[in-house]
């Protein structure tokens, strides 16, 4: 068993100090694509040491690796850091070697943040599974591109039965963005009992009802939200403090609930004034395993060209 295999075995057994020592030993023995990349992977995944990981990866790509792993990992790190142009550059190089869903997802995020919505839409679609967050992001891009009819057509395929289903409120949000208020209300209703209730999505639920001129229903949702918030607030107020739940912690949560009540009470007048509650949307980057020789993910050791 070589040093890399020993390091991977230690890593898989959660012996992180031993794994780090072995990955470092492998680099000292021979600074090649595999040793440099795998130490960078460890530093990124377990030490959250972005900068040192990038230093090692820059050295790795100077060796012109035949694998997409180093480029994909650089792209992932830059995506996490919000360095969109650098992320896109690395991910395009990774994509040229071997396309993967993680590459497409991170390339989509970088493209979206750079304002390249059409490119982002295509990459989100290539990264997607049925009814998942990538397809959700694809639909959001279609709406931003003005392709609302196509967006609704894709949304109609979303199913709660799909393994990666994004969620009822998320689907409702997109129908609302596309201007299909009836289906937005339908999906908000589905999410009412299962979602954490907070003003951002509840205000959008009320707005959909308002647009359908279901004014009494809209007022009832506001009334219920305030009442349920008050019940939660009473329970929090009655809770005893201890070393794990301090007075400061308790006061912070109480203040949060009071702010939520204020937001609910202001909703109706804001809607009457023409206010449109904005959809919260922040596409996420995707992490993947880029260890050469990882037995869990069936990765072979680096063989070069």
How would you characterize this protein structure?
This protein has 15 helices and no strands. By secondary structure, the protein is an all-alpha fold. Helix 2 packs antiparallel against helix 3 and helix 14 runs antiparallel to helix 15. The chain is globular and about 70 Å long. The two termini are 23 Å apart.
Number of strands: 0
Percentage beta strand: under 5%
Shape: globular
Rg, please?
24 Å
Alpha-beta classification: mainly alpha
Mean pLDDT across the residues is 96
Low-confidence spans? none
Q: What's the end-to-end separation, in Å? A: 23 Å
Number of helices: 15
Q: Percentage of helical residues? A: 55-70%
Biggest sheet layout: none
Order of helices and strands: HHHHHHHHHHHHHHH
What's the arrangement of secondary structure elements?
Layout: H1 3-12, H2 16-29, H3 33-46, H4 50-61, H5 69-81, H6 84-97, H7 101-113, H8 117-127, H9 133-144, H10 148-155, H11 168-177, H12 181-191, H13 199-211, H14 215-238, H15 247-272
List keywords for this structure.
305 residues; 67% helix; mainly alpha; 15 helices
């Amino acid at each position: 068993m070589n040093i890399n295999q020993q390091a991977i075995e230690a890593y898989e057994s959660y012996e992180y100090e031993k794994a780090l020592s072995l990955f470092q030993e492998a680099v000292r023995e021979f600074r090649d694509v595999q040793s440099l990349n795998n130490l960078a992977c460890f530093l990124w995944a377990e030490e959250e040491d972005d900068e040192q990981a990038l230093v090692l990866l820059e050295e790795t790509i100077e060796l012109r690796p035949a694998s997409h792993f180093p480029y994909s990992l650089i792209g992932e790190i830059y995506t996490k850091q919000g360095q969109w142009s650098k992320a896109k550059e690395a991910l395009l190089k990774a994509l040229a070697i071997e396309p993967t869903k993680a590459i497409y997802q991170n390339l989509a995020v970088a493209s979206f943040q750079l304002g390249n919505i059409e490119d982002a839409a295509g990459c989100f679609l290539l990264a997607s599974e049925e009814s998942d967050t990538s397809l959700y992001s694809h639909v959001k891009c279609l709406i931003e591109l003005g392709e609302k009819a196509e967006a609704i057509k894709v949304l109609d395929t979303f199913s709660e039965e799909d393994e990666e289903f994004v969620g009822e409120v998320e689907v409702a949000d997109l129908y609302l963005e596309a201007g299909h208020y009836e289906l937005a209300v339908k999906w908000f209703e589905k999410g009412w009992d299962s979602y954490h209730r907070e003003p951002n999505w509840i205000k959008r639920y009320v707005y959909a009802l308002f647009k359908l001129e279901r004014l009494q229903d809209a007022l009832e949702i506001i009334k219920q939200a305030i009442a349920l918030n008050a019940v939660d607030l009473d329970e929090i107020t009655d809770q005893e403090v201890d070393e794990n739940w301090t007075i400061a912690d308790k006061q912070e949560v109480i203040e949060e609930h009071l702010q939520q009540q204020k937001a609910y009470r202001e909703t109706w007048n804001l809607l009457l004034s023409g206010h449109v509650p904005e959809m919260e949307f922040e596409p996420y980057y995707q992490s993947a395993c880029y260890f050469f020789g990882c037995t869990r993910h069936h990765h072979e050791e680096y063989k070069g060209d």
